[in-house]
Amino acid sequence: MLFLTACAQATPEPVRPDIQLIPDAGGLAVAPSGLRIDFGRSPRGVVPVLDKALGAHQVLSLGGCPDGVTQNVAWGDITLTFSRERFVGWRQGSRSQGQVCGL
Question: How far apart are CA 86 and CA 14, in angstroms?
């Protein structure tokens, strides 16, 4: 029983339900803070921040991605695409903006 308790304490922090990403034509609005993650931001400045706020991202295949897309990652139902140096697109359900990978 002690072993199970120790394992339970090693789980990652829960996702923060108070943070919501609202995709738009310029990138993402972060509610309720009023902050933004605009297209053009470095993946080094976006991915770790979202991992901390939303939990670890899921790495998706680059199959069907436009030339230049080097990362295709998801947090829940939102997928973000990045070039080597920039945030270039998002997809959420049937909506998308910027450079996104095929389904």
Answer: 28
Domain hosting 27: range is: 2-98
Q: What are phi and psi of 50, to 5 degrees?
A: -70, -35
Q: For residue 28, count other CB atoms closer than 10 A to its CB.
A: 24
**Any residues with CB less than 8 A from the CB of 65 and at least 6 apart, and which?**
72, 81, 99, 100, 101, 102
The beta strands (E) that lie in the chain are given as: 20-24, 27-31, 35-38, 58-59, 71-75, 78-82, 87-92, 95-98
Is 103 within the bounds of a domain? no
pLDDT of 45-100, one tens digit each?
Answer: 999 999 999 999 999 999 999 999 999 999 999 999 999 999 999 999 999 999 99
The candidate with the shortest Cα–Cα distance to 85, out of 32, 33, 58, 45, is 45
pTM, 2 dp: 0.82
Q: Given phi > 0 = left and psi -120 to 50 = alpha, else beta, which region is 75?
A: beta
